[in-house]
Amino acid sequence: MNTSILHQNIQDFITLNIGVPIAKLALQKNPFPETDWILILNQIEAKSKAKDKLPSWFLTENIIYPSKISVEQTSSEKTAAYKASLVSGETLIDLTGGFGVDDYYFAKKIKNIAHCEINEDLSAIVQHNFKQLNVNNCTFYAKDSTHVLNELNQKWDWIYIDPSRRNDAKGKVFMLKDCLPNVPDLLDFYFEKTDSILIKTAPLLDLSAALSELKFVKNIHIIALENEVKELLFEIHKHYSGKITIKTANLLKDKIESFEFLLDDETVFAHYHLPQKYVYEPNAAIMKSGGFDEVSAIFTINKLHKHSHLYTSDDLIDFPGRTFQIEKVIPYSKNEMKIALSNQQANITTRNFPETVENIRKKWKIKNGGNLYCFFTTDKNDSKIVLICRKIT
């Protein structure tokens, strides 16, 4: 860890250049020849990325940032705070500590945190930063987490793991066994050290594939930030054998859109109807969950078609996603399109429809934007239709 970047004049320079394009700065002469220019540029770029994602770090003096990739790959503070709400007890060990954002929030809930990070430089950076952030209940181990678990030989209330894909796994179907650490192979070993494990994965992991590799899964959390799915969390408890609950959370600026249901609940059925007064589009976390029949059943609203994943009702409800009032429903035909939408401006979404948004725009000369929202979809009678709507929320 290079501490020369903590000199006040360098820190002032970093702060002054937040948001300035790195390509532009790279052409300048290094005003601090005693410190590596690339290192300074990296601090500027990484701190710029932290401004919105990691405000606690950004607003704290003398923080050292790792590579910009580490900042890009780390949890945001909002998703880290959500994870911390899931754990409790006295002890937690993070087997894949990284930049420590998750542990910063775990430390607010758990008495003693262990941060394992095999990269010695990154471990030292996090240890330094936690002093600046006034986190005093975290112990650091710059070595392989399996060795740490063996050496400490204690029982933990929680083990937290954020496995990373091996480089040789690129291009393959994403499986947990292709990651480091290999959680499926190590699961029995981990359960010698704890009864509760929280695993974070990238959102592209297929839920059914993950369940085929794991056991004792109690809850799966699907976390979206401003309607973009950021991570999946698998909460597993030793010997748990009940139904699995899917919990979705879309973290917005002023609220959390939550929705949950039991996986493979055979008592749940969707109801179908032609378009009514309102149409609802689920948020990204619900779309990832696959709980489409459950949305219809739990909210008592109708589905347009088995594969359309749009919902409708005559009475307005509070819905975890976007809500629209339908102004007009037209069949997807040449005459109707010419009259209603040709050469107009509209926001277009397709759901269970044979044409792409790009093709639709080109064919009917529809400009992007405006206050009109059009859903090109299929109704319960298998007819291709267009819902012309105004957005409510």
What does this protein structure show overall?
- It contains 15 helices and 19 strands.
- The chain has 393 residues and is α/β, with parallel strands linked by helices.
- The protein folds into three domains: 3-72; 75-262, Rossmann fold (3-Layer(aba) Sandwich), CATH 3.40.50; 271-391.
- The strands form three sheets. The chain has a nine-stranded mixed beta sheet with strand order 3-2-1-4-7-9-8-10-11. The chain has an eight-stranded mixed beta sheet with strand order 12-14-15-13-16-19-18-17. A two-stranded antiparallel sheet has the order 5-6.
- Helix 6 (77-84) packs parallel to helix 7.
- The chain is globular, with a radius of gyration of 25 Å.
Please count the helical segments.
15
Strand order of the largest sheet: 3-2-1-4-7-9-8-10-11
- Count the beta strands: 19
Approximate helicity band: 25-40%
Low-confidence stretches: none
CATH architecture of the largest domain: 3-Layer(aba) Sandwich
Number of domains: 3
CATH topology of the largest domain, by name, is: Rossmann fold
Radius of gyration: 25 Å
Which class of the largest domain in CATH terms?
Alpha Beta
CATH superfamily label of the largest domain = Vaccinia Virus protein VP39
